[in-house]
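pinging the channel bc i need a second pair of eyes. not urgent but kinda urgent?? the chain im working w is below, pasted from the shared doc
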Amino acid sequence: MGDKCRCRSAVTDGFEEVGLALGGIIESYELPEDAVWDLARAIDLAHERIQAQLMRVVVEPLKVMSPSREHPHPAVSHLMNRLAENRNSSDDRGAYV
């Protein structure tokens, strides 16, 4: 059970890195708002699909990370929040608003 927990955590860690990379790209390039949200949704859905394939286990709480900029793009903030929520509840299937 511990290995599965670490596996789920490692998957989420990887997707958090992808979210941070997306934030860096948004800082460097002018992207249409819809494109940013579409990327964030696609990343979130891929994360959910992978997590659904793993056995559901309780994971350790998320360690608080300090943002790399004062005001991250709302899509990136939303993605990072969804990933953090997933650490605490694998049943959360909230929608993008």
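so DSSP finds three helices and no strands in the chain. and The mean pLDDT is 78. — does that match what u expected or am i reading it wrong
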